[in-house]
Amino acid sequence: MVYPSNHRQIVEELMAGKFILANEEHFNALKENDKFYAEFFKVSFDLDLNIKSDYAFLLSKESQENFSRDVSIFIAILSYELDRDGRNFMEALEFNEFTLEEIDRYFDNSSFIDLIESNKALREPDARRTLINGMHRRNIVIKNFDDRFSFTQAYKVFVDFAKELAMKRMRHEEPSEA
Amino acid sequence: MIKAEPRSILNFLHTHFDVMRDLFALQSSDGLITKEAYDALIHRQGHTMNIRLREYRVVRSMGSDYEMRDVYFKLMEFLLFEFKPLLPETIEKYKTSIGDLFLKIRKYENQDRDILQERIKNLSHQVREFVDLVERNTFRLLAETRELKSNPERIDYREKVHKASFWIEYYILPLNRILDVKHSESVTSTIIDVSEYANRKRLDMMDETLRMEFEKLYAQLVQTNSDLLRQSKVLVNELLPLLERIRTESLILTGWIEFLRNPYKVETPPLLQGKRTMVYAKDMLFKVREFFEQFAQNEIITLEDGVVDFDKWIFDREHFKTNLAAQMPVNDFFGWCYKELKKDFSDIDTDKFFALCGLLFDEDIHLEFPKKAERVNLVTTTSKISLPKIKVEPALKID
Prior knowledge:
A: Arc Repressor Mutant, subunit A, 9 helices, B: 399 residues, 3 domains, two-stranded antiparallel ribbon
């Protein structure tokens, strides 16, 4: 049987928990063979493949994953602080470049300081750098230089998560308001 | 009927504009001016103010409360540019009024000239009112949306989502339907029909006065269509995306705040656990474990004196040297060694044999090597040894 081009790269990266982005060459091979790969990962590892127009990643069976939680808290606080600062946080996540100094400023002055201090991946500047490096390894951010990074389209997974959470909450509240 | 001179009224409005603004604000927020609010205002301004307000028909009684008359209210709305957005249902009525007049104009175009002329003028007036309302509504909606975006009242995100959805659902989309040229039921499409009709009639109407009326109507409608198109563009290209964005952003922030309230109780996106690629070998862990395991002592080993199981024979050099000296000259030194050990042991250890052979290097012994290759074969516990026959005798001493 003939495997799609970049097969090994696709499998290795996805199995390493990495996002494959639409601007990467092997994304097309993955997208063109989406049915094959969905079946491949399901049969081989019992994992579900999620392909969107901008990115693709493997879903874990483990729901209590710390990294995902830490990234969610990171983006949540950053979005909130950007909005509080009068900036359009959606545009910032989509287009802006963040410096580590800027991130430290937002986190050190955040009103969510109790939560930040209770989380070992966020409480210290060095810990935050480790988390950002982890996001870089997973293709959630791109490090442009040592001290600055920007988000890839993978941030949308977390934004969609927030949107879904809000809608769930609102749906839940509507009947009681009526 | 107002007895006062128009200039006096305008003068009053000019002098007491702040009072007018207060009355307008009260009427705008509550829909009427409560007796308490009105009395407080009169108390501040003096009793003459009450007389003037009634004389110039600025306010009228509504039971025990008051209301600002519509003409003044609209004037203030216009002067302050503070229009309340109208529900599109209110604006939609112009479809009926314009449509009805249009129908009658077409149906009776060859009958009474005067009534036709009046209908054309009324139609023109209705169109003017319609465009005016649309413009005011769009302007107000834009202002409301921008205010929602900047959020000076710091309303929470869920309220923002609600407001944005409300504006979109009840104002923007219905208003856009009214303005949508492609929609056959829209007011704009009716105006376009009127415009096409007026275009024909301004040319083929026999009566010159009527031709002129249609000409004016046509010119007005051309301008109207262009104005409405501009309003429609503002709605579709600016207002709707802006509100959609406010709604999406507020929805996401609502979600984040909900999440941050207790981030450890919500299931986050299930990302696959990544495996870090190490710079060392993948089986390093197992190798390290194996390495350390060989040093791991599973049971305690105790060493006790006196139970050591080994031969404690110690070579007594002086004893054997004395024996050798007594027997010298000896023709076969190694054979002699073997026999000496044989006196004490039935089996000869190689170590013991070689220890005894060490006497060969003693300075008091002289060695004499055989001329022929004569050898002696000896058997120890571990080896069979073939050795030359060496003769030993006492060494000569030189003083």
